[in-house]
Amino acid sequence: MGLGPDQFLELDGKRDLAVPADEALDPVHHDRPRRMRPGHAVREDERAGSGRKHDVHRPGREVLGDDGAQALRERRFGGDQGLFDVLAGVVARGKKDVIVGAVIIARRPLLTSRARLCPVRVLAVETSTLAGGVALLDGDRLRGEYLLDVRATHSERLMPAIDRLLADAGWAPGDLQGLAVAVGPGSFTGLRIGLSAIKGLALALAIPIAAVPTLDAMAAALPFAELPVCPVIDARKGEVYASLYRWDDDGMRREWDYLAVPPETLAARLIEPVVLVGDAAHLIATPYARLAPAHRRVSSPSAVGVLGLTRLAAGEAVSAADLVPIYLRPSEAELKRRVAAVN
What we know:
alpha/beta; Nucleotidyltransferase, domain 5; 5-stranded mixed beta sheet; 9 helices; 16 strands; disordered N terminus
């Protein structure tokens, strides 16, 4: 996909602006040809995400963290395989200015007549805990959900899960119109994997992202609850992540800040009967605890998708550059760096 100065790019038969001399496009793969057409990445009815920032602003803007970028291993995406070959190349080499199917021309977003419409087909990703997975939503209809609670890392199973779910639903990556991702708090490594994958997909497909706090999504999975709901996630090092929610006519309302506290401290804060969800719910020893059923206790990709659709409809999309995780405390790698700096 090489274009020189003053040459035009064809998007499914449409002519776009000439590429300035200083913005010449380099081929993503130099070693072999690809079946990638510009229309694979950006079709006429797709649009760039809103520039409006999400209200979650936390430290940790380096999403890839210490692990750095990793190449994608799964490339079996049917007719759109070329798209993910390009994405793999971008992630593996860390090139920031690679133009994928004219996602960016002269560093400006590509807008169309449907740019202001709310996305309908959304891929949701949840990698905050071991019980993670992906979901596909078509408006208010859940097309499919893949959820697995095993010790295998998300780096091994996330892209194959997306591949499998898209294939089973009969969708191509280009059919997606929006993305939703759980941004924590949760596992540092899991969050980096999930957010990195979503960033790559958003850039390759030129679609908006909804950032969904993990605890919000877990509480939203129990609508109309008469008791308050307290999601509890194992934070390790003798602590849990938690918050408290109460249902009102508009949905689940969060009453506490996001916390990282010892289980005993959380138990002492619960002064009324409360429904506990999450992988650390069993650690909260209090007579007020009411454990949710096992199938409602795990984090849900579909709940992330439902909240994501709501945020996208409200114009609360974030760009790939602004997508950051919620870290309530420094990661182990950050703590080691601080110790090394002191010593």
